[in-house]
Input
Amino acid sequence: MKILTVVGARPQFIKAAMVSRAIVEHNRQGANPTVVEEIIHTGQHYDDNMSDIFFRQMGIPEPVVNLHAGTGLHGEMTGRMLCAIEEEIVSRKPDWVLVYGDTNSTLAGALAAAKLQVPVAHVEAGLRSFNRRMPEEINRVLTDHVSSLLFCPTQAAVDNLSREGITRGVHHVGDVMYDAALVFAEIAAHTSTILRDLNLTPGKYYLATVHRAENTDDPDRLWNVINALNSLEETVVLPLHPRTRKILQRVSPSLLTPNASPAKPSPSLRIVDPVSFLDMVELEKNARCILTDSGGVQKEAYFHGVPCVTLREETEWVETVQAGWNQVVGAETERIVAAVCRAKPGKPITQYGRGSSAAEIVRLLSSVAE
Output
């Protein structure tokens, strides 16, 4: 059985690493059928710390092609990917196209396969924020509706699909990101030097990530978030996403210029370049609290036992809120600061599985081919 995997963004690299490892183990055990995987990298993330380094650190097989389609508006980017992926599918003749998450790469891979009548398997299916203004929400919905196998991380995701009339091929397999947390947390502890490099004390700093369009494309929201980070008493480490850096360079270049005034960040706000995956794991594990607009980082906070404050108006990971680990506060400065002050650990969440989600995905793919 031949699988063509389409990835292009940081969270997808991590998930793909887990499934690739499970494929290798499946073949090593002599299970039938033998699974051959080829990876297409769309190039959606083109900064080295956001793409190539993930392949090196996590042992993902080298992509057979990099489409270098990481620039432009959503339609332009998705269109270029769609055309290029279609050519690869025609040439490579896979039995399945495997896509991850909710990016433009996800949608392009799913549409290209569906139009060529190649079945699509979607990892992290069924998530819904119910906010159609988010490009990611459109990508999720469309991808799920053309997929033949839908691998859901939670029961809530299964229920979302059922409400949309999708019940065939739906499986609650748990979260491959939990697999990754178990595998890479220990590796990061032994290999990452980021805490020493940034002179950080475990439990004595906050970690923040900001990259969603709803925050970066609205100057008022972005400024409110920055003001909140500047207002916190402990050190705040902000690995700056290339998208966010580009916007800040335009709307507030003084934030990125040491010793500038009057908009200079407070001494507690440490803006750094994007960090490697293992460094990010180490920063997450040891933070006092994480502030983020990333869906993946919300879960990673829980996996590492760290409270989270979500800088959005909603979350697709509702169980993290229900269990008390996560507060969804939007982008008002006062609400963000207040949420950080009351952040604390919550209750255990059982829906994410036991760290064997990737193996279950490979098993289900193999059973379809039998």
